[in-house]
Write a structure and sequence with these properties.
heterodimer; A: alpha/beta; B: 3-stranded antiparallel sheet; about 40% helix; globular
Chain lengths: ~800, ~230
Amino acid sequence: MTFREFLKNNIVYLDGGMGTLLQANGLKPGEYPESWNISHPEIITRIHKEYYNAGSHVVCTNTFGANILKFRQEELETLVKAAFENAKAAREQSSAEIGDKKQEKFIALDIGPTGKLLKPLGDLDFEDAVSIFARTVKLGVKYGADLIFIETMNDSYETKAALLAAKENSDLPVIVSNAYGEDGKLMTGASPAAMVALAEGMGADAIGANCSLGPKQLKGVVEELLCNASIPVILKPNAGLPKLENGQTRFDVMPEEFAEDIAELIQKGVRIAGGCCGTTPEYIRTLTQKTYGFVPCPVTEKNITVVSSYTHALKFEDSPVLIGERINPTGKKRFKQALLENDMDYILSEGISQEEKGVHVLDVNVGLPDIDEVEMLKNAVCGLQAVTDLPLQIDTSDVTAMEAALRRYNGKAMINSVNGKKESMEAVFPLVKKYGGLVVALTLDEDGIPENAEGRIAIAEKILETASDYGIKKKDIIFDTLAMTISADNLSAMVTLEALNHIRRKLGCHTSLGISNVSFGLPHRDAVNGVFFALALENGLSAAIMNPYSADMMKTYYSFKALKGMDENCTEYIEKAGIFGTAVKEPVGMNPSGNTKTAEEYKSELQKAVISGLKDKAGEITKELLKSTEPLDIVQNEIIPALNVVGQGYESKTMYLPQLLMSAEAAKSAFESIKVFLSSKGKKSAGKGIFVIATVQGDIHDIGKNIVKLLLENYGFDVVDLGKDVEPWRIVETVVKLHAPLAGLSALMTTTVPAMEETIKQLRLRAPWCKIVVGGAVLTQEYADKIGADKYAKDAMETVRYAEEIAG
Amino acid sequence: MILTKSYEAPPFCEKEILRYAGCKSEDAKLLRLLRACIEEVKDKLAYKVCYRELPITIAEETCDFGSFTLYSQNLAKNLKDCKTVIVFAATLGVEIDRLITKYGHISPSKALMFQAIGAERIEALCDAFCKDIADEKRKRTKPRFSPGYGDVPLAVQRELFQILECSKKIGLSLNDSLLMSPSKSVTAFLGLTEDGIDEEDEAYKTVKGKREMNKCAACMKTDCAYRGV
């Protein structure tokens, strides 16, 4: 019988702890347990055999840390081979001892975490992680695994990398288990429901929890898994927690209590059970005896439409979902400019401010004819996932870009979109199947958009049918019945709503609309949009792609929820009512510390705002000023003098760094108003020159670099920010390509200064014209001279002064 | 065996945070910024430590920890008189790194504040852990000593990470350049001396009091921007 067949109708018992038993047998601190496959095969085989004899259907090979980061390839292969030989020998010995008529015996390739944290939190690239796992998976397949057990993962992204590697390199069943903390979440933040969404979406055979805690503490996690998963749930806890007792460390849950706790959860629905750290064959024996004769709970289809991020799952239920539409260049000159300039900060702040407005999902569309959309979409998705935990909707018609983004996405994404055309479904559905996702399906096909509701419904039915051929469930499709402007066709909104209503109520599928399209070409669009939104909600709209800055839309949304009984005591409505469409005002009239002048003495409101570090106010005043004043005059007569006051204050130590930064941010906000003004006129401000900036390879600290960047921008430099952990060749290439006169390098650690030295060496060779300024905690004048920099800047202001001197 | 501990948040010290942020005095605006940042981060921090006790023998200036040895004059001096040492790793978790990244894009002044809060928090966590160990073991502890400090090479991080299984125990990982992720983390040696604490021991109290007040005075790095004395 195969593992999948066996799992269908049985409770599956896994083995118990390995590491703790090896320690008891003499494994030294720091010694790799995997090396014992070769040095102590008899001990490994005996432990496996004892687990089979105790009733385990599955033993996991002693390969938890067997990966290419810890072992060379030949070593790795020898280890994995030996691990399987040991497990197979154990299986044979056990069959000889207890007979195998009654008990299935499988061998799982055990895969634990790499021990490295993935980018952006750590330094391991996602694709490198996939390759690392792929090597181990291939060896497992070669040496005879019956299934793959991905376990003890404390990060959703690494879980995804391992699962992807397993799926891409084998057809074996893959069961996935995570290590949850006492807060019921993974170390990097994912909830059990989020892990279900991710793993189930990618086709895992089971999902669960292991290690970290005892069965009692994992109860909540298991219950959350059970009510969300449509696949079997695994539980493989520790024997409680390690405690110090009379100088001896031992785990605090004994076999009897362990078995009782797990038995209770098997009755609630757990289908795969075993033990982790501190458990022994005795624990497994007690467990199998205690649960002997238990009828396995059926695994039921949960029919939950869900997307997820690296922290949480977002379910599509009664309460409608808001999808922010602002990350999209269509009709937005300033956004186009940001894309062309690769201005990631601008794109990311669009995401963050929509989150602050209360949207639940961010639509991400960065398609422009002149840019590399594949690279840009991937970077935007990764960048956004470093600053917001909202689920993303990947919005592109470029299938290559879609795949690149879906692959890197940490969670289960929304995908925008597929439609009823054969070509579209053939391109998109395989991606949905492979990476998981909730896909927006547009009700149009080769013949265009049907004019009546019946036509659109027929296309929806066709799409559902085709999706099902790919193994994609109805719950993973959300229909968009296409809102079109009523200025072209008076009845178009009614048709859209009729189709929407039918699909939601009769087909039982979720629905989505791009609301704003309905008013295209009309004046006061917000008014029409708001009412159309209300009508759509009443007709069963599950999600709206909308503008969260529109007060009309937000009013409609919160009023609708209050009216429909979705907002208990109208709490949410009352909370939001105060801020509909109005920005929160910052307090005014503060003075920077230690400055002898009072704010009143500065001649203008804008200067006061910049000096006092009032971000929103500085932006607003500038907007007003632009109605009557030339942009250049505002910069020269207002912003720069204000910045100089602050800069001098900082240099003379009457102001400190946080105050300098608050003023710089206020100035940036003023500059942003100017940029918007200029790009609406198709113009760009002339800068003082290009400054390429980066934190060098191996270093992931970028706060200092970001501070320098902000101040340089304030002083009119076009800063090209390459980010952190940047390879020397990338910096050189950028400097050469842009013929940049200035480059700034930052390093915080002594271990990364050699990377800085190497970068300087390469720059000297290929960009001899470029002046190089270095900074960072570890640097000194002496160090800077030694590695051949032109300038050591002790702080951000010094960099600005130097850059101005060079730019002359 | 490797043990783990979790702590409740130790009290925040605003003055210390401002010192890390490079402020030698405070005003209403700075305090408002600081308090807003504390409010935003305070429920997002973990205070986790994993540790194990190792034997220590010192010959000349080589410290022998059983499973590995380390040549260091400074550490040998620090651990003189110790028979056992606690090696530990402490972390605040990933959330503060996420906030620093987020505000690095939209508000560097806040990013700087979070950076400073992280520095103060991780030190406070280490203080709490070391005190806890001293009380639990009823032994005196030496000042904790971290890799990269004095003549202890940063490369010893590799050994510490291996014997502490930091990734599995507290979610802390070591990058190729020997930096830690999450960044607000500390590893250190904590020497235990054999004589137990005598609460009435006036001499100990003085030493302890002095050390707590004058952490900077004991430090060899005299050109430090944050040096308090």
